[in-house]
Amino acid sequence: MAGSRNPDLAMATEQIVPVKLDLHADPETIKPLLSGVEAIVFTAGSRGQDLLQTDAYGPVKLMQLAKALGINRFVMLSALYTLEPGKWSEKLKNYYIAKFFADNYLVNQTDLDYTIIQPGILVDEAGTGNIALGEQGLTSIPIPDVAKVLATVVDKPNTYHQVIQINPGEHSIEQVFTELN
């Protein structure tokens, strides 16, 4: 299942069934949509239009529902430096505050098996299938590579309870997460 505020725009495949999921809805409305879900991969973003409801409280609401429903795996797409306020861009400060709230809640207020993925600037370019981990400054990374990272880490226990910075690199995504300690 792929929850989306605009499921008609989501690409349906054999593995992806788009459904309407409104992060502004009350938890009891969202709860039935999570029936049978084994992991949540949170990729929603407000694009600066609705920071509190979407980027801050939206993921927290899903974390709380995950806990209540026994869904232990939670993968969060975040942004580079969200947990390091001293490195925030002044221009994007409100965005970073919202992301900090959600990421900090996931790390410190839940016992979920989380992985937080922190890419740099997402760009709409063809993916390479390769990445590097760790701090390299604010780099651009193709959206398909970030999507592949998210899909790869879902079933990798070696990524549990980690905040992982990703950048363009020379190593295959699968190799990087197979070898990660």
CATH names the topology as: Rossmann fold
Multimer state: single chain
The number of domains: 1
> In percent, how helical is the residue content?
25-40%
CATH evolutionary superfamily: NAD(P)-binding Rossmann-like Domain
Helical stretch count?
5
User: Uncertain regions: pLDDT < 50 for 5+ in a row?
Assistant: none
Largest sheet: 6 strands, mixed
What is the chain-wise order of helices and strands? EEHEHEHEEEEHEEH
Second-tier CATH architecture? 3-Layer(aba) Sandwich
Straight-line N-to-C gap: 30 Å
Rounded mean pLDDT score: 92
Q: Which strand order does the major sheet show?
A: 3-4-5-9-7-10
Protein name: NAD(P)-binding domain-containing protein
InterPro entries: NAD(P)-bd_dom, NAD(P)-bd_dom_sf
Organism: Limosilactobacillus gastricus DSM 16045
Domain NAD(P)-binding: 4-157
Write the layout of secondary structure elements.
Layout: E1 2-4, E2 18-20, H1 27-30, E3 39-42, H2 51-69, E4 73-77, H3 93-109, E5 113-119, E6 121-123, E7 130-133, E8 140-142, H4 143-153, E9 162-168, E10 171-172, H5 173-179
Helix pairs in contact: 2-3
Question: How is this structure best described in words?
Answer:
The protein is α/β, with parallel strands linked by helices and 181 residues long. It has a single domain (2-179), classed as Rossmann fold, CATH 3.40.50. The protein contains five helices and ten strands. It has helices at 27-30, 51-69, 93-109, 143-153, 173-179, and strands spanning 2-4, 18-20, 39-42, 73-77, 113-119, 121-123, 130-133, 140-142, 162-168, 171-172. The protein has a six-stranded mixed beta sheet, with helices on both faces. Strands 1-2 form a two-stranded parallel ribbon. Helix 2 (51-69) links the parallel strand 3 and strand 4 (73-77). Helix 2 (51-69) packs parallel to helix 3 (93-109). The radius of gyration is 16 Å and the shape is globular. The chain starts with a strand and ends with a helix. The mean pLDDT is 92.
